Amino acid sequence: MRLYNTLTRKKEEFIPIGKTVTMYSCGPTVYNFAHIGNMRAYVFMDSVRRALRYCGYKIKGVMNVTDVGHLLSDGDEGEDKMAKASREQQKSVYEIAEMYTKAFMTDLAKLNISRPEVVAKATDHITDMLNYVVKLVELGYGYETSDGIYFDISKFPDYGKLSGLNLDNQIAGARVDVNDEKRHPADFALWKKAPKEHIMQWESPWGMGYPGWHIECSAMSKKYLGSRFDIHTGGVDHIPVHHENEIAQSEALEGHQTVNYWMHGEFMQVDGGKMSKSLGNTYTVSDLEAKGYSPMMFRYFCLNTHYRKTLNFTFASMDAAKTAYTRLLTLINEHKGGKNEIPLDVLAKYEQEFADAVSDDVNIPMALGVLWSMLKEPASKQIYDLVQKFDAVFGLSLDAVPQEERVDVPDEVTALAEQRLAARKNRDWAQSDILRDKIAQLGFVVIDKKDGYDIKKK
Ligand code: AMP
Ligand code: ZN
User: How many angstroms does the Cα of residue 233 sit away from the middle of ligand 2?
Assistant: First the structure.
């Protein structure tokens, strides 16, 4: 298997450390409903997990849930996102966290995103984070200011290696920093001292306070996966700040590289631009459902574009995904009862092409291409079975009956159809016609068959 590594900027052969692949994924900040862009990030995480499993690996995956410490700006300034939501929605931070975590888990389930083996809440790991910060300070990487403990990036010469940032240029171009106690504008908070009114605060060697945003990922990945693990995923927005800072913390503490493969999912745009509340274009999975797009149609929409490419959401392209997904199910369904024999070497060829795509940096769009081409074979149960095997990677519920064929028939219509069947058995054609019209008035058609009937929507 080959994976694109952001750190080395190339596709590399994937060589896991041990028998079980260890993988950490940056999870949501639970102050809001996740939008479809956020969900693309987790469809990506899920595709990586499914691809690894298909290639024969076992996985231990960890995902954090940020319920403290993520401030409005990634530069450690502004209010805590959770506190802001709590103030605005008149609920406690814990109620906010619970409500949005639950909503997020529901969306994961709707989208067939398998839950990582460990889901870790930041507020459950305050002691782990504090111990981490204390160690970093002991090692000389942290310093105290009037409002917190900061990481001194000048002590970590590799700072910027993930994004290839040139710090000198950055400083020259940086806006005047609001925090003039910091030694370098890119120094970041490991721990913040809490003003009295701050909602979430814990005891620390520096008085009451709360963790910085980045420390949770270093502390929790170490706790659950050890000081060296295989894969770390996140969105491309994490590269320049969050993941640089995580690397600085982890490598400073351990004295060696801690993550072997860094993988980042590209962003989703809406109508060619940024998703934002002010533009009213931050749709959720539920919003899409209300507009007639099922979660599987949205998953199909995501899978059609490689995870390292920007994906532009428009309702026209979502419509196309809806049509394609429905067509896909129809074609698969036709193979279900198919009696044709497909030569084994033909099946093996599809299987090989599929495996090649999946193991080439999780190329799901290419794997979908293989799926579409094999559906052109004469109707065969063998094709149907292979599709179901491939669906372990797609996670598209490809055993579902296409919606256009699934008819919810009201009892009233069934009763009329039964009466009509009886009338036909008695050769009472006049009554049969009357009943047919009644059924039509209710929006259905009966199609007569040898020993019964089918009912379809008109
Ligand atoms: P947050 O809850 O803001 O920490 O974001 C959760 C995840 O969604 C992170 O992995 C982000 O990288 C990702 N994300 C945020 N916006 C987008 C977007 N428009 N497209 C894709 N991923 C996104
Ligand atoms: Zn993280």
Answer: 9
Q: Is the CB of 41 under 6 A from ligand 1?
A: yes
User: So what's the pLDDT on residue 287?
Assistant: 97
Question: Is it the case that residue 379 has pLDDT exceeding 70?
Answer: yes
- Angle at alpha carbon of residue 426, lines to 422 and 431, rounded to 5°: 70
The DSSP code sequence of 62-117 is: EEEEB-S--BSSTTS-S-BHHHHHHHHHTS-HHHHHHHHHHHHHHHHHHTTPPPPS
| CB 117, CB 108: distance < 8 Å | no
Expressed in angstroms and rounded, the spacing between residue 217 Cα and the centre of ligand 2 is 5
Residue 59 has pLDDT above 90, yes or no: yes
Assess whether pLDDT exceeds 60 at residue 40.
Answer: yes
- The pLDDT, as a whole number, for residue 226 is 98
122 CB within 6 A, ligand 1: no
Res 384 pLDDT > 50 = yes
3-state secondary structure of 371: helix
For ligand 1, atom 10: residue with the closest CA = 235
Ligand closest to Cα of 243 equals: 2
For the packed helices 344-359 and 36-54, what is the interaxial angle rounded to 10 degrees? 130
Q: What is the pLDDT of residue 401?
A: 85
Residues with Cβ within 8 Å of 155's Cβ and at least 6 positions away in sequence, in order, are 140, 141, 252
Q: Which atom of ligand 1 is nearest to the CA of 311?
A: 20
Nearest to 382 by CA among 329, 344, 356: 344
Q: Can you give the pLDDT at residue 70?
A: 75
| Calpha distance 80→280 (Å, rounded) | 23
pLDDT at 363 over 70: yes
Residue nearest to atom 5 of ligand 1 (CA): 28
pLDDT band at 173 (very low <50, low <70, confident <90, very high): very low
Q: Is 357 helix (H, G, I), strand (E, B) or coil?
A: helix
HSE, CB side, 13 Å, CA atoms: give it for residue 149. Answer: 27
pLDDT (average), residues 187-208: 92
- Using the mean position of ligand 2's atoms as its centre, give its distance from the Cα of residue 219 in Å: 10
Length of the chain: 458
* Selection from 407, 139, 420 nearest residue 253 by Cα: 139
Pocket test for ligand 1, best of 29, 38, 233, 236 (most atoms within 8 A of CB): 38
Ligand 2 centroid to residue 82 C-alpha, Å: 16
**Which atom of ligand 1 lies nearest, measured to the CA of 275?**
19
Residue 172: per-residue pLDDT: 46
